[in-house]
Amino acid sequence: MRIEAFNERLRDSILVVDGAMGSLLYESIGPQRCVDELNSLVPDAVFSVHQRYLDAGAHIIETNTFGANRHKLGLFGMAERVAELNHRGVKIAREAREAAKHEVLIAGSIGPLGIVQHVRELPDEEIFAIFKEQAGALEERGVDLFMLETFSDVEELLAAIDAIRSFSRLPIVAQMTYSDEGTTFGGTRPQDSWAKLKDKNIQAIGANCTIGPQLLLPVLRELASCAALPLCVMPNAGFPKRVGDRIVYPRSSPEYFALFAQEAAELGARLIGGCCGTTPEHIHAIAQAVKKIHLDKASGAKPMKARSIEIFEPAERFRRVATREPDSKLWKKIQAEKFVVSVEIDPPKGVTVERIVEQTGRVMASGQVDSIDINSGTLARVGMDAMVLAGALEAHGFETIPHLTTRDSNIIGLQAMLLGAWAVGGVRNVLAITGDPPSLGDHPETSGVYEVDSIGLVKVLARLNQGTDWAGKSLGGATNYTIGVAVNPVAEDIDEELRRFQEKIEAGAHFAMTQPIFDPQHWNTFLKRLGGKSPVPVIVGLWPLTSYKQALRLNNEVPGIVIPEPTLREMEKAGDAARDRGFVLARRMLDWARTARTEGIAGAYLIPPFKRYEEILEIF
Prior knowledge:
Layout: H1 3-12, E1 15-16, H2 22-29, H3 38-41, H4 43-56, E2 60-62, H5 70-74, H6 82-98, E3 105-110, H7 124-141, E4 145-151, H8 154-165, E5 172-176, H9 190-197, E6 204-208, H10 213-226, E7 231-234, E8 241-243, E9 246-248, H11 254-266, E10 269-272, H12 280-291, H13 329-335, E11 340-345, H14 354-365, E12 371-374, H15 386-395, E13 400-405, H16 411-423, E14 429-433, H17 454-465, E15 482-487, H18 494-507, E16 511-516, H19 520-530, E17 538-542, H20 548-557, H21 565-574, H22 578-594, E18 601-606
Parallel strand pairs: 1-10, 2-3, 3-4, 4-5, 5-6, 6-7, 7-10, 11-12, 11-18, 12-13, 13-14, 14-15, 15-16, 16-17, 17-18
Antiparallel strand pairs: 8-9
Helix pairs in contact: 4-6, 4-12, 6-7, 7-8, 10-11, 11-12, 16-17, 17-18, 20-21, 21-22
């Protein structure tokens, strides 16, 4: 396609791009080692995905070639199949186009090489050659344009553009991926990206992946303020989470994406689609919304699949210590039927703890709070280790519940941390969690460890409490951790959640902490499915909402959070007083929790708004 013709289309109309490819392929054929290889193995499945997006109203479909470059394919022993897999990807897309009822453009999808910057860098000339080889194969088979997407390093994106422009005159859409802080993982802001890209012969600039619709809008807004090109935007469905050995995205409503499309178009987006977790339903909603938008044509107004390792019970080699009742202060209060309150904090990202110790001290000095629970690498971001920070807070006399994730360490490392936290840090409680996948964090190129999930971690903790390591070797003593686990009363697959919760209890959990809930009925419904009584005490999560937009984003983009429609309406109706209303609603939930001991509720943990920890005291 000529660049002039593509520019004309972007001036006169909004083009709808398709959505996620990998997640739909997983649904139809199950796990696979390499998504690009499916162009050869199961072309009909790839064809079906294209067809579903075309039926939904997509004007542009992307070839299933995001990782079909020599570097990434080489990890699977397929470095010599670049031409084959890219050719097949284009062929399948062209066959789908021939069956479409409307005009369709085929975009050759090209992603980054997956190099961990500063760890394994390839020579510039090799990077250039890798991109040129893939782009050449795509153009040879007949793509209409190139879609460069999910680049976190602007220099790598520039290399890809130069490689294409060394031989091709097809249109290029160049997209970076940004975090919820509005920067790439290398710290580049949208305006900095534009400064680097403005002199390149590209036809559209944009952002895709990593974050959901609402968090991508500020990125788009910043691009709109400086860029002189049409904008492209393709958000994720929201934040992913790990379920078993799968990465699962939330079911954002199509209506939510329709509203996003309207706002994006107002900011100058001329290509609008979806990325990870989006479906044909989302694209259909975007297509319907786009039909209602009338442009001023004169002015042009504006995965390596995570793996699981099954753990087998090792043979007994040493006598274990008899199971003991936990003796932490938190556990003793729960057993005395005192309502316990915890406040959740995030570890600092820097190298000092003075400020967090000071903030924690003021919270604990209120007399309303019993303990501090500490997130561990929330959203897979780098921060101070939760177990180490817990030790620092314990040294100041503050009881803690650090979260421990299985994402970042193998079984040996997990045990080492737990032994050190017990013996040196004075930590007596721990919450066992699986952890957010690295794909949404500071280092998306890395892989999670996940040798065990949270159930396996509870088993590890139970062994340490019995005086042996996982291999059965005596420790010469025993820990006596109070073991906490997570439970989600509003999980999408409630049967699976119940099964896992029961396995956590059987593995040795003493108490549970829920995902934040916003309606007592959510807990009561879960309790009925559970059989009427929780087998362990439960500390319920409460989150004071501060705005309607925040509530809307949490409900649509964050897995495991469900905000009832009446609550959303109350927050919307409150307008400028939404923060006050959010605290009123949270206070109402806290009052309920205090009277729900017969329903298994032993306490509450409170999530402060925007890390303003002392503000949470207003809830009392």
